[in-house]
Amino acid sequence: MIESWRWFGPLDEISLGEVAQSGATGVVTALHDVAYGEVWSIEAIEARRRLIEGPAALGLRWNVVESLPVHDDIKHGSGDLSGLYGNYRQSLANLAACGIKTVCYNFMPVLDWVRTDHDLPVRGGGRALGFNEPLMAGFEARMLGRDDAGNDYAPEVVETGTALIDAMDEEARAALLGRIMAGLPGAYDRYDLGQLRNALARYEGMSGADLRANLARFLDAVLPAAEDLGMTLCIHPDDPPRPVFGLPRIVSTEDDIAWVFAASDSPSNGLTFCSGSLGARAANGLTRIAERFSSRTGFLHLRNVTTEPDGSFTEAAHLSGDADMIGLLRVFLAEEARRRAAGSRDWELPFRPDHGHELGPDLRRPAHPGYPFVGRLRGLAELRGAIAALSARADP
Length: 396
What we know:
alpha/beta, TIM Barrel, 12 strands, 8-stranded parallel barrel, 4-stranded antiparallel beta sheet
């Protein structure tokens, strides 16, 4: 497996030197400064690639794009989308011309991910991300004023959540909004409540079937080009894998993923297997999903969560939590072996330690939520050790 590290570009507090110190050789990044829907020029891609790969002593390579964003108009299916589709295809062509062939993307409306907590305590004073289901229900019912929030949450969850919100002062409510808005695409902008309501209003009445139709339309428009370029587009599961804000979610379960591949059998139609996103839905059988779709997986996000009966979850250490990480690694190592035996040149799967606890010096250093240095360093080291042990056992 190719050890990789998500890096947010020149504005990232973590340097490329530190990425190299982690032992990773792959860099997962994107042109975060390019507006959604605009073409990624060869010049901009090459400038970023030279920044990463130019210092030869670091031994780094830009191996995965995360992500080439899908414009909200495409997800909404509104208007003449030919220009946006054309720009996406051109960006793919420019990436391929620069030697980058794996692209991670998602099809989640409005927010890419949602957490209610960024500082849950872990042993020794560290901090973790988490999702509190009652708090989310209370936010939707009280702060957003969603009258139909009760349709998405159990009555007792809404009751508990509204009591939590009612007990907060304005400062605490603003902090909660800020944490939830950290999942806004682009990661730098934030909505206030009015802007969030307006963004959600655009999707009123949209069903899961409607969103699936828009995804199928997108795949029909871009996969032939990706296939001609020898690229793989790897869809990321919903995070969390359940409806939030009344928005439809269509990549949350095994059946959802099966639908994505039924929509197109193109070899360029791939999966980003995210053990944390899929694992946040307790009913998902992670190992079964991995086994069923390993041949369609082009990229791995490896992290762990501990789930609660009410739907809440906390991000756990990489080898802790509910997911059988060793079992998952065993599945994907076997898939690598199958690809290698079949003569594939690109048989190695890129993976990155997804998220991590804030540990030690992380607590005094700014970072994107979920992306501290020491916490991910620990995760990568744990995963590296597990992979080495499993690989040694597989040798005759």
